[in-house]
């Protein structure tokens, strides 16, 4: 494998891995953000549930008409606390002082609560409350209504979230966050006017999420890829990355194959004019001088040469047959302009795709050739192809003939036509296929059929061109058979316009300036 290909393939491999890393990170990140938002919403829901529990407890207590901290009052308060899971303490007020609580009973010195933090739905809230109980300090929120208050414990409210520690709950009071619970310092007040704010980092994801009323907010920080430390996950990731690299190699190969495929090259070649006409001289057998040429398509692009046997079927499959012919004819007319007139016109023989005759595209040639010098005589070579629709072709070829175009049957003797079909065509020339000419000098069986072809041509009043003449012995034999014109490597292969000009200068009465 050449070094450049190896480098390109390695690059494709690593690009595949990099794309995969990005994709995995993106998917992971999106999933994590959704999980974190859901989790935040669940925390806020649990806090709301606690508040509702407190509201209903306060409503029930205030329905009683206790005015002092009687045994019955304390009993009622304790009974209610017992029923409500998240309530850790209930206090009873005389004026604005607490005179008894479920935890301590009647207070020796009544306590006065400070100014509440916020009033919501007629309830007063104190946040960040720390209540000392016999089994430790309770962090929570105090809610007061009427003559009672309740202390809600975050620990019990958020018991479902205990496995998840890296979060902070704050209350926004006059837009300033007040720490309520969890890790101090995670919430940075980034939400501004939005309900949530996501920060994606290489090492961690952070989400700040506020409840619908933008009053309680949760900030969650999650380290990235902690799962990576787990062996199976690492193995799966490595497998995915290698798979991505290998997939990228396949994609590279596929694109490379597509970009370098003959079909793609031909498509591009048609756009970028990579098809060029070459000219193979048609020679008068007696004088050895060129009387015309057959235009043969040649293709060359930066990747090299493609031969007609390869590109002709593909051009046809691409439906670009007329496009190619038109390009070539236009170029040929341009090439042959400046031809100095000899006594006779020069024949320019052009191969036409049968389908372009069937669909009448070929008639477009009349526009192309109408301004060409009259010393170029156009001949269209058609093959006796099964694709050719004889009935349709007859009508179209007649139009061409009327416009001065000659019709030539190419590869004659190898095709599908029968005599009656041929007679209905306005034929000017029969080109005897090379397979008849091969070994004519040794009297090969196939070559013995040539006189029959000559007699058919005579019946059709058509000229004959012998194709594929490769040596002087063949020339001599063909002369004996009264064949006048020939084409083949004995005279010349198909030439570029530059070489063809030289050829004409040495071997014809024409001159290309
Ligand atoms: N519709 C179009 N068909 C085209 C066009 N250009 C070419 N073709 C057809 O492709 C087939 C192959 O053509 P090519 O490789 O160019 O071969 C031609 C000659 O180079 C070859 N030839 C000529 N003399 C000799 C010879 O002495 N020996 C030898 N071994 N080969 C020789 O024969 C081909 C010409 O064939 P033909 O057209 O039948 O006269 C071929 O079928 C082309 O027709 C195009 O522009 N349009």
Automatic annotation (TrEMBL):
<keyword id="KW-0973">c-di-GMP</keyword>
<dbReference type="Pfam" id="PF00563">
    <property type="entry name" value="EAL"/>
</dbReference>
<dbReference type="InterPro" id="IPR001633">
    <property type="entry name" value="EAL_dom"/>
</dbReference>
<feature type="domain" description="EAL">
    <location>
        <begin position="259"/>
        <end position="508"/>
    </location>
</feature>
<dbReference type="InterPro" id="IPR050706">
    <property type="entry name" value="Cyclic-di-GMP_PDE-like"/>
</dbReference>
<keyword id="KW-1133">Transmembrane helix</keyword>
<keyword id="KW-0812">Transmembrane</keyword>
<keyword id="KW-0472">Membrane</keyword>
<feature type="transmembrane region" description="Helical">
    <location>
        <begin position="231"/>
        <end position="255"/>
    </location>
</feature>
<keyword id="KW-0378">Hydrolase</keyword>
<protein>
    <recommendedName>
        <fullName>cyclic-guanylate-specific phosphodiesterase</fullName>
        <ecNumber>3.1.4.52</ecNumber>
    </recommendedName>
</protein>
<dbReference type="InterPro" id="IPR035919">
    <property type="entry name" value="EAL_sf"/>
</dbReference>
<dbReference type="InterPro" id="IPR024744">
    <property type="entry name" value="CSS-motif_dom"/>
</dbReference>
<keyword id="KW-1003">Cell membrane</keyword>
<dbReference type="Pfam" id="PF12792">
    <property type="entry name" value="CSS-motif"/>
</dbReference>
<feature type="transmembrane region" description="Helical">
    <location>
        <begin position="12"/>
        <end position="33"/>
    </location>
</feature>
């Amino acid at each position: 494998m050449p070094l450049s290909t190896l480098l390109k393939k390695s690059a494709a491999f690593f690009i595949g891995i990099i794309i995969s890393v990005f994709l995995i990170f993106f998917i992971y990140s999106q999933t994590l953000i959704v999980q974190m938002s859901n989790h935040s919403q669940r925390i806020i829901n649990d806090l709301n549930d606690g508040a509702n529990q407190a509201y209903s407890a306060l409503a029930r207590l205030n329905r009683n008409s206790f005015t002092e901290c009687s045994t019955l009052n304390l009993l009622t308060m304790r009974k209610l606390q017992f029923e409500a899971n998240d309530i850790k303490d209930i206090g009873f007020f005389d004026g604005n002082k607490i005179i008894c609580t479920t935890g301590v009973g009647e207070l020796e010195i009544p306590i006065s609560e400070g100014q509440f933090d916020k009033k919501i739905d007629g309830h007063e809230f104190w946040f960040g409350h720390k209540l000392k109980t016999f089994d430790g300090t309770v962090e929570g929120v105090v809610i007061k209504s009427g003559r009672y208050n309740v202390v809600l414990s975050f620990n019990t409210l958020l018991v479902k979230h205990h496995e998840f520690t890296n979060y902070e709950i704050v209350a926004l009071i006059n837009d300033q966050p007040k720490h309520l619970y969890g890790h101090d310092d995670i919430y940075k007040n980034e939400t501004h006017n939005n309900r949530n704010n996501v920060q994606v980092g290489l090492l961690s994801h952070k989400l700040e999420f506020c409840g619908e009323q933008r009053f309680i907010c949760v900030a969650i920080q999650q380290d990235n890829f902690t799962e990576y430390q787990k062996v199976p996950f690492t193995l799966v990731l490595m497998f995915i990355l290698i798979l991505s690299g290998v997939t990228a190699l396949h994609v590279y190969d596929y694109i490379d194959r597509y970009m370098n495929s003959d079909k793609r090259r031909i498509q591009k070649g048609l756009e970028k004019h990579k098809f060029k006409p070459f000219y193979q001289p048609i020679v008068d057998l007696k004088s050895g001088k060129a009387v015309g040429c057959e235009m043969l398509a040649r293709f060359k692009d930066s990747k090299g040469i493609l031969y007609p046997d390869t590109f002709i079927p593909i051009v046809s499959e691409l439906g670009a047959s007329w496009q190619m012919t038109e390009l070539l004819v236009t170029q040929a007319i341009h090439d042959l302009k400046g031809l100095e007139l000899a006594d006779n016109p020069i024949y320019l023989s052009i191969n036409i795709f049968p389908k372009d005759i069937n669909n009448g595209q070929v008639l477009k040639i009349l526009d192309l050739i109408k301004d060409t010098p009259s010393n170029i005589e156009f001949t269209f070579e058609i093959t006796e192809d099964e694709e050719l629709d004889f009935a349709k072709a007859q009508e179209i070829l007649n139009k061409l003939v009327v416009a001065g175009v000659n019709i030539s049957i190419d590869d004659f003797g190898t095709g599908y036509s029968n005599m009656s079909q041929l007679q209905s065509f306005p034929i000017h020339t029969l080109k005897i296929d090379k397979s008849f000419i091969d070994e004519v000098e040794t009297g090969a069986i196939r070559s013995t059929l040539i006189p029959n072809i000559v007699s058919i041509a005579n019946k059709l009043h058509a000229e004959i061109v012998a194709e594929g003449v490769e040596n002087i012995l063949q020339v001599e034999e063909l002369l004996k058979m009264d064949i006048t014109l020939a084409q083949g490597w004995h005279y010349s292969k198909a030439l570029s316009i530059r070489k063809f000009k030289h050829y004409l200068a040495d071997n014809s009465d024409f001159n290309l300036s």
